TrEMBL record:
The lineage of its organism: Bacteria, Pseudomonadati, Pseudomonadota, Gammaproteobacteria, Oceanospirillales. The chain crosses the membrane at residues 7-32, 57-78, 90-108, 168-189, 196-216. This is YoaK family protein. It comes from Thalassolituus maritimus. PANTHER family: SLR0142 PROTEIN, UPF0700 TRANSMEMBRANE PROTEIN YOAK. InterPro entries: DUF1275. The keyword Transmembrane helix applies. Pfam families: DUF1275 (PF06912). Keywords: Membrane, Transmembrane, Transmembrane helix.
Amino acid sequence: MLTRLPVWILVGSVMLALNAGFINSVALLSFASNAVSHVTGTATILADGVVTGQSALVLHTATIVLSFIGGAVLSGIIVGNEALALGRRYGLALAIEALLLIAAWKAFHMNHMAAEWLASAACGLQNAMVATYSGSVIRTTHLTGIVSDLGAALGNLLSGRGMLKAQFALQSAIFVAFIAGAILGSLLFRRFGYDAVLVNGVWVGFVALCYVFMLARRKRELSC
């Protein structure tokens, strides 16, 4: 179980959750009005389309879900393991995510549905990239599991069983960062339109560089 929280994990999780809240906010406010950082609501809309016989809706929502899955598959190919550990190819995965978001920016400007597919693939890649650390589940693109875990932790505290403070701090930080990212995404979308997505792509590229530099520094320290 998570009892100690390395600073790089906390900072990285916050930066990625901020990104997910941002892109999901822009996608919901866009011409297509669909979420891209999770698939629960999209799958429900898909199911309703099946019941009502709306083939176009079924096709569109299915492609969003499949794009998310495709991003997760790509993460599995690149990173290879869901357990968070320094040295894995997160820098490459994040660089590809940044490229997907920049491509989504171009597609949003063209009012093309590919924008949602690309943004959803980026979120699927990110969500699968970091799944567990020290027995704790880490998800940065949606809040359902995070909120459930926070509620359970508070229930344990109130019942006198205590709580894992490091885990609670991590999940609280992810929750706040996702909301902050959504607020920022909404503000920038209303100010700059789809150019806000370009900010998103640059941000993820920055996170990738931070990881690469941190990893290089750690290797130099270990070699000394």
